Amino acid sequence: MTNPTKENGTSGIPAQRRTAFLELMLLSRECDRRSGIVLRQGEAWFHISSAGHEALAALCELLEPDDLIFPHYRDRALMLARGMDAEAQARDLMAKEKSHSAGRNMSAHFGHRPGNVFSIASPTGSQCLPAVGAAWAARLRGTDQAVVCSIGDASTRQGEFFEALAFAVERALPVVFLVADNGYGISTPTDTMSPHALGLLPPARTTVVDGADPDAVHTASAAALAAARAGEGPTVLWCRLDRLESHTSSDDHRVYRSAADLAALRDPIDLFADRLTAEGALEDGRLQDIRARLARDVEDIYDRVATEPIADPGHITDHLYAPRPATGPGPDAGAGQEVSVAPCGGTMVAAVNRALATGLARHRELVLFGEDIDDPKGGVFGFTKGLGPAAGPRMTNAPLAEATIVGAAVGLAAAGMRPVVELQFVDFAGPAWNQIAAQLTTLRWRTASAWQCPVVIYAPWGGYLPGGGIWHSQSNESLFTHLPGLRVVVPSTPEDTEAAFLESFTADDPTLILLPKHLMRRRHEPAARPAPAHGARTLRTGTDVTIATWGNGTELATEAADTLAADGITADVLDLRWLVPLDRAAVADSLRSTGRLVVVQEDNRTSSYGAGLISELLCADDDFYSLLAPPRLVTRDDVHVPFHPDLERAVLPTAHDVVAAVRSTLA
């Protein structure tokens, strides 16, 4: 007998879709079963089962093609519903060349660009802030696009989940948080530690759902999505269900779950099949026929995919950056449009403000986001002062939460916006590190360029500004240059600053612009001629020694060069400006001419960028055999920057240190 509420579609999955949805659940389960077999056959290395989570895919019955999903690794059925078919999932499992990541991302770390499914990163909960960023993009554009953020209950203890929920509530963003509560975080029961169990979720925005019942999921999702599209903000769908298999193929849940517990688990496929049978929609024997057909089909698909090639290891560095411009200069990996700025004086602060104003005027998708950046303050350093009228809703203050700033920017960029975000000091990037290292810098590479992340982050950087102390004087550029996929620039003049910003607004990769606090308010006369946006800039020319530096080091290096010139010693002083991509050719060419190298930095010595640069040059025979003396690194010792100005001066490098280093290479 047919349930009339299903017949007219007022509750649960509509009648015309019910059998098809059961088949989708069965296909998901069969893919899980076949994945386990393939793993045991040695054709795969890791598997995460979605068994027990299939009913959550009922939400996809209500999504529009433009809606976005930020998925969880047990969302196999959701992926099938969004078009990532069994063949694509087999390639994902076996890390084949034609998989969505070209074999770079782990299995069950789903992604499907045609279905607007964002790529999964392993750090749990790291999808939440990009999800609300994408929802913010929809709000800025005035569309009725909705975003689904799927997550496991154990992962909701991550701080980024709470930051994302707070941001979504604050801005009434169209997000549905789909929480799969299967009662476990690997082996740890979550019934006494989840945010819901602890009463930490807003009751007015939380709906508890029977996550093993597709009709219940469908009904709750319909209400949540309607609220999101109507501008009522986010809903948390807390879906209670059972994980039917071990956490992963590396786990055995029989070690920590009793036989009675395992016997009592609810299987959503059995429950829904029984309901369809009772409704008369599933004839006797039909279920067995579907299972048998899917088993044959999936076996054929997985067997065929097993014979496909893996990606060519020779192309493993492809997609770290966007392709170079066809006419661009050599060192511009991942660069945007080549930019040169007309000679201008003033300060770096004014140059940032001027560049941001230009960016807002030229790029409709550009969004400014950071702490205290809105008028009347315009940021701690005044970078954005007076931009409010031109920016409108495209410039807003961020909460005191660096992870939110960068994570939301990732989602904005993934949704096609051009976010430019300010961190008040680079010293405070720590809370955002998860988003920088796990999402921002890996997204293009792990999706073979299906997704890109053109975020611009700028931050005051460095010491030589008395009273900064440990947490306002860091020059930790090596932390960021260590991350493949991130472009890093340290300008030291207004022209270079403006050019770096303007070029980055059109680049298709993330850019970090580090602004030396010591130099940013120093007035400059206009340069004699414009400099290109990329490559090293020559500050002094000479034949006796090459001094390579960046940021505040340019002041030390030029002062030292002037002192040495009085004794007839001439130095080639290079301001590297771009640390990534490095203009290696400029340094190597100068070194082959002078035979001596001094690298000047203010960061501490061990594992620093300067140490890496020297190592890079020493490893090339042509450069090594050009050396007439061992290279020198002028640097801070491995100690933090202290608060008292006299103590700060005692630990930071000086022009005298540079002079001494140069003289030692000439001895």
From TrEMBL:
Keyword flag Oxidoreductase: yes
Catalytic activity as recorded in UniProt: N(6)-[(R)-lipoyl]-L-lysyl-[protein] + 2-oxoglutarate + H(+) = N(6)-[(R)-S(8)-succinyldihydrolipoyl]-L-lysyl-[protein] + CO2
Documented EC number(s): 2.3.1.61
Cofactor or coenzyme needed: thiamine diphosphate
Annotated InterPro entries: DH_E1, THDP-binding, Transketo_C/PFOR_II, Transketolase-like_Pyr-bd, Transketolase_C
Domain Transketolase-like pyrimidine-binding residue range list: 346-522
Name by which UniProt lists this protein: dihydrolipoyllysine-residue succinyltransferase
Alphabetized SUPFAM superfamilies for the sequence: Thiamin diphosphate-binding fold (THDP-binding), TK C-terminal domain-like
Keywords: Oxidoreductase, Thiamine pyrophosphate, Tricarboxylic acid cycle
